[in-house]
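Q: What does the assembled structure look like for these inputs?
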Amino acid sequence: MQSCLIVDDSKVIRKVARRILEDFDFSIDEAGDGQQALERCGVDMPDVIFLDWNMPVMGGLQFLEHLRARETEKRPTVIFCTTENDLDHIRIAMDAGADEYIMKPFDRDIIRTKLQQVGLI
Amino acid sequence: MSLSETSFCRFADLLDRRVGMKLAAEKSYLLGARLGPLLQREGMNSLDELAAALGKGSLRLEAEVAEAMLNNETFFFRDRVPFDQFRATLLPRLMAARAAQRRLRIWSAACSTGQEPYSLAMILAEEASKLAGWSIEIVATDISRHALSRAEAGAYSQFEVQRGLDTPRLVKYFSKEGDRWRLSDDIRRRVRFERANLTEPLRFTDQFDLIFARNVLMYFKPERKTEALKRLRASLRADGALLLGAAETIFGNKDLFAPDPSAVGYYRPAAVFSSAARNEGRMATQS
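A:
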């Protein structure tokens, strides 16, 4: 079973994403901000990270820059999942090392598409 | 919503006659689900009232009912695999076969709001270096004027551009205009849209090398499906290929098409295509 870390400061979003991703057979862990997510990654690097952009303490982009700067054995797939829905944000995220980008609101079909695009399902 | 058996039969007959759609009794709930907005626009309170109005012979109302009942579900790179196969197998094979003419014609039949032909156009844009000097025509047709109008505009919602489309292609081919995502002129120019009804004779004078007719024949009655497959066969070159939807087969029509051994979901014209069937299809195509 592949592992997924959902990083979002909204409990509701984490719950909705968890339900969908569990259906795709991922084991789920959660973090409420980028700092917590970095700590989780330090303990056990997930296969895929669902990442919000705007969060307290440490935002998604800052988290991604730290993550990609680390020397790690495993390179996790990062899928941004955010309300930022303009091309500039998308380009910045992809340039920083995101593998895919979801504009909220999302549904099962969109998540399936993105997981397929990155070869996880 | 009130629906007598007579009314149901009137709707079912209309849909079969105008768009080849079979409406089974257990699917009668679709009438209520899809015709609600039309009832509201017409100031009517029930499907029986609409059926009665149809009985007076209004062609405008018939067209509006048929249009409202069509399923326009589609998305970019739907099912993905057929598009991978198009790039990896079909396109190289057809290019080898047409090396002398350097010309390919592709038809996206029942293209709905355009995501399928535009997906093909994106692949062809990405293969441009191999296709230098080639003339490639993508003709996309649908029965729905509303869907065609949306397809020609090439502007999609945030939801639509996330279904099937990967982010690198979104960034490469789209710009954002307000809350819509607009496809680049380069991709839009590669597709020509026309209205066509697969249950009627087609107007094409030249055959195609590749036809995509996905998720449309499944709505037809068996005899309508055979008629449509004959038209598709007559519109396809002998060494061309036909792609059907993932849930569709050529069951009952093996004299027309056979599975393509090198590409799952694709069909090639059957080796034995009776001259009677060929003539029938050709007449239908050219009349």
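The radius of gyration of chain B is 20 Å.
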